[in-house]
Amino acid sequence: MTLSMYSASVPVFTRMLKNLLAIFDKAEAHAAANNIDLQTYVGSRLADDMIPFSGQIQIATDGAKGVSARLAGQPLPSWPDDEVTWAELRARLQKAIDYLATLSPEAFTGADTRTVTLKIGGNDVEFDGETYLLNRGLPNFYFHVTTAYDILRHKGLPIGKKDYLG
């Protein structure tokens, strides 16, 4: 059986974003039980020079929709990164999941060899679709999902590997 570009991307992104939604549920329950304001999580970060939790969610969702759109040869959806509340971040996760559901496996035909051009350091850098997904898209996505998880874990949320993996 051959692994398709669709199955290596859209279902993977969708599953991890749904896992984040389940972690949001746990965070909400934990906050309610411990009298914690959910807003304290939004701006939290692991180190002063890191992007806060809100940015991690924004970048993870941007990655999921951007990688998928590029591989499917679709126009890149543009969403402002203006979420400032927990509820807005939750809605953004759902919006990304909903977007991914609009992409068909057929749209990914030829995605492995489709040229993807990114602006990196002010320069256009070209990748074939497979290299883009495996060496840039997925690692970047997982970095930001993991960092969002780590921030919440660091803030005392009782989550573990089972929550991350779903």
Order of helices and strands: HHHHEEHH
| Beta-strand percent range | 5-15%
Quaternary organisation = single chain
Unreliably modeled segments: none
Relative helix content:
55-70%
| Envelope shape | globular
Structure, explained:
This protein has 166 residues and is mostly helical. The protein has a single domain (10-165), classed as Four Helix Bundle (Hemerythrin (Met), subunit A) (Up-down Bundle). It is built from 6 helices and 2 strands. It has helices at residues 10-33, 39-42, 53-72, 86-100, 129-154, 161-165; strands spanning 115-120, 123-128. The chain has a two-stranded antiparallel ribbon. A hairpin with a 2-residue loop joins strand 1 (115-120) and strand 2 (123-128). Helix 1 runs antiparallel to helix 3 (53-72) and helix 3 (53-72) runs antiparallel to helix 5 (129-154). The longest helix is centred in the last third of the chain and has 26 residues, at 129-154. It starts with 9 loop residues before the first helix and ends with a helix. The mean pLDDT is 97.
Present the secondary structure layout.
Blueprint lengths: L9 H24 L5 H4 L10 H20 L13 H15 L14 E6 L2 E6 H26 L6 H5 L1
Antiparallel strand pairs: 1-2
Write a concise synopsis of the structure shown:
The chain has 166 residues and is mainly alpha-helical.
Characteristics of this structure?
single chain; 166 residues; mainly alpha; Four Helix Bundle (Hemerythrin (Met), subunit A); two-stranded antiparallel sheet; 7% strand; globular
